[in-house]
């Protein structure tokens, strides 16, 4: 479903004129300017703020040269996944220690102190490591891809650039989200529409993960799988 199709559905629902194009003549069309802004905001809100969607998960790696201490984050980097650890290929069992505070990082570097597994921090668009990665050793990590739009011209982007671009996630979510937000911005009743969006979002989030595992002899329902075929201790 293209951006134009989504916007047509939204316009028909909220009671504004259904367009034949979003980008054509947009400089003189306030409604389409607002629709485009809303589509970009809602697409990014769904992609970034709700969960670590499997389709947007990506992996990164940096290879050391024995000299460089800071590596520029990937161009499509949005944020780390909620459960991300940074691991060295030469010692994958123990992740590096994350230092969240820059002042603490500077203090550790000035005192020439680091954990046995090594430290890392993100600062100014780079990931820094201490000690410096040895030649040909590397670190791996997972992150969320910021490019939630499939571009007609090829590749992906973080915003819509043409009528035929499409949302990489569920486009019905985008439509429902735009409907309730449009009504809210225009002062119209929107509670029921927001509820429909929230239900659809929860359903989509629930299906974007494997079935839960039950550690016992038999599953409670068909959605669970046996992970440990003996009784649990009291």
What descriptive keywords fit this protein?
alpha+beta, four-stranded mixed beta sheet, 5 helices, 2 domains, about 230 residues, single chain, four-stranded antiparallel beta sheet, 13 strands
Describe this structure in words.
With 234 residues, the chain is an alpha+beta fold. It has two domains: 109 residues, no CATH class; 91 residues, no CATH class. Helix content is 31%, strand content 20%. The protein is built from five helices and 13 strands. Strands 1, 3, 4 and 8 form a four-stranded antiparallel beta sheet that branches. The chain has a four-stranded mixed beta sheet with strand order 2-7-6-5, covered by helices on one side. The longest helix is centred in the N-terminal third of the chain and has 20 residues. It is elongated and about 65 Å long. The model has no long low-confidence stretch (mean pLDDT 91).
